[in-house]
Amino acid sequence: MLREVDVLIIGGGPAGVETYRALAALRRNKSLKIELVRREEKSIVPCGIPYTGVSVPLDRNVIPDARLGIRAAIDVVTEVDPDRGVARTAGGTTYKYRHLVLATGSVSTEPRFEGSDRAGIFKVVKDLEYLRRMWNYIRQARRVAVVGGGPVGIEFADELRRMEREVVLIELMPRLLPTAFDPEFGELARAQLVELDVDVRLGTAVVRALGEGRVEAVELGDGQRIPVDAVLWAAGMRPDTALAAAAGIKLGPTGAIAVDRRMETSHSGVYAVGDCAEKAHFITGRPVWFGSSSLAAHEARIAAGSILGLEWEGGGALCALITVVGDIALGRVGVTEEEARQAGIKVAVGKASAVDKHPPELPGARNILAKLIFNASDGGLIGAEVAAGKHGGEIINILAALVRRRATAREVYLGQFATQPWVTASPIAYPIIRAAENAIVTHGLR
Amino acid sequence: MLREVDVLIIGGGPAGVETYRALAALRRNKSLKIELVRREEKSIVPCGIPYTGVSVPLDRNVIPDARLGIRAAIDVVTEVDPDRGVARTAGGTTYKYRHLVLATGSVSTEPRFEGSDRAGIFKVVKDLEYLRRMWNYIRQARRVAVVGGGPVGIEFADELRRMEREVVLIELMPRLLPTAFDPEFGELARAQLVELDVDVRLGTAVVRALGEGRVEAVELGDGQRIPVDAVLWAAGMRPDTALAAAAGIKLGPTGAIAVDRRMETSHSGVYAVGDCAEKAHFITGRPVWFGSSSLAAHEARIAAGSILGLEWEGGGALCALITVVGDIALGRVGVTEEEARQAGIKVAVGKASAVDKHPPELPGARNILAKLIFNASDGGLIGAEVAAGKHGGEIINILAALVRRRATAREVYLGQFATQPWVTASPIAYPIIRAAENAIVTHGLR
Fold first, then answer.
1. Same domain for B217 and B244?
2. FRET partner for B383 with CA separation of 20 to 30 A, picked from A87, A109, A387, B132?
3. CA closest to A301 among chain B residues
4. Based on the structure, what is the number of domains in chain A?
5. Model pLDDT, residue A314
6. In Å, how far is B399's CA from the nearest CA of chain A?
7. Could you tell me the pTM of the whole model?
8. Measured between beta carbons, which residues in chain B are less than 8 angstroms from residue A330?
């Protein structure tokens, strides 16, 4: 069957769905024909996966097609010919498109230890059936090892404790959240997990899974064996570029699909958005890979603009992220102090802590820690990290707006923010302002 | 007694305290001599006053002098001579100052009904002893009338319900929050109060208090009598300018002390900050009075910069505010749609609603309503209003950062924000972005 479409979108995750939705919302020519092809009957909400153990029913953790006005063709694109503007599917459809959007997402890396073929060893797979089997297995387990101390790993550990499993969390680096946060924030995450009775092992790796058919223990680098009934590999995702690579579309140095600021690939009329696409870091300009649904949705809107001729350009990836563990939310945006130093940027750091209600004696008050990273040469805000109670999750997005405008320390300090006893720190202690003041005073920024 | 100081601050509320604290933090010359004179032994946290009925002990709702490094002289300044740089106190001190900061705050208006001298009729007075008497009285009451449906009135009504009093809330205008929010947000507040079993009376006024010595009822404009045991007048504050006016310092058209962008008054070396000072509206440029602790603290930092020769200038008042009623937080910044129209600005409004967790089936999820007000001629964001669960309180501060940079609809739409299942809306439904999209699509902004 031959189908001619204006826009063909491959992939039904946040990137593909938001491209479709934004195109439909923004198009002026209502006859623009958009088709989304995806493999799965229902698309999973990727960030929700760790919470489908007990917090939310698995079959509710799906992207609501109908509410978003999406009609998807359930099929598998097997081949793309970007020179001829043609794509073919396993179901026998040949698409002729004017614009192609690759939104093929990311997949888990493979477990990097021996014996990973044993039953009871799982990866983060964005597939309802796989996850159903995984949770059913884990519900029979008493003790679970989570491998990987990044956001996904700590969120799984948190949920597994809600399920009253015994949890051991194993991270290769000597700290938690090693690639997303500076050490003091990883330490806050560790303290929360320890409080939740998670057995946190840092600076060590699983080298081997042991057991007869089913996993019964993992062996660490020092030879120690930990009895477990299940293992969850949460130590990394990678862009799914198989289709693009086979089509001769250029990949970047990170291995993801290379795109320009309009999200266009090496082939005119072919776009890549979301986890399959490489990003230019907003601050350093360097190519990075940063798996993120919110960044995917942003890129989808840029691509929709490009397809509609709106001349929109992204400014690069802010790399904003929130993760939650126990009662705290940890957010980051721009560069961490460590990332800035690695990029050769001289930094001026300001920190402040505050209580998220005022007076602090109001019930339910929690601590906020804010860290602002300025470029010491021009005083511009290049990054921020925040730890707060759950109701401070949005604080990182205030900082995202400020990093995006490259606000100076003085501009941040002279910002105006609303405060209210139940929902924010006091006007005198407001942590963003006090962290800017700390940078100004400590580093002589003006 | 004669005391020579570099900076004399009159008033111990957030404006005065933050001026002191910021001066001390930012000064390079550590011998700069700062003195703060205030009337009260302990300074109350003004925004916390409504919550001292039961949520927080009254004597904990005070500004923590010691923690902030503030030493205050407890005295009353009776006279200022700005030409000679001298101030005199009731306690017999004559201050000779180089810089004077007026931070005299605001006081309640007087009840505008007959019989307001009866026992059991209270105002919002920033004084521990007064408030102690008020709460003791109210604890004996069964039914309380709150007069005024602005933020302070609805916050008191909320707290009085927590105290299990019967509450009738009376607002002259036909809607709640009439001067701070557009009608749809006032309606959300009303619905919350009704859910809390508050008897909300709109478009009517108390004309008379009845009773023998103690108040026993209030009479409304239509002659209806409502039996009550206490009345709380929460229908307006006004700047306290007595000292400034007597000293010949110029007041502005709103009746507050006129200041320039450096917070300096008509008299060189004399500054006014906080509720006693007039503001220039950030968007309209018009003189406004806007009582707000967070704005007061901002102005205090500007004044500290002026005194220290840092050449800081405020850009005008963003008029950002959060209020809480029941389970929802309502925030506004810049101008409301109504304020924009009154100022003759042609507006392009975008709205969106979303759920504050994703998937929405996660426990505790609540609705968010976001309204963005753009200037139709240049597409710049000039105002925003948000209603959200308490953990969305900070969302208005993201918008405060965007209004301050005069972001266009497109810049807002192409913003990057972090999302996480427990603490934000989904990346596809993120309400700030969807409201910007709504404005772009509805009004053809680009």
1. no
2. A387
3. B414
4. 3
5. 86
6. 8
7. 0.97
8. none
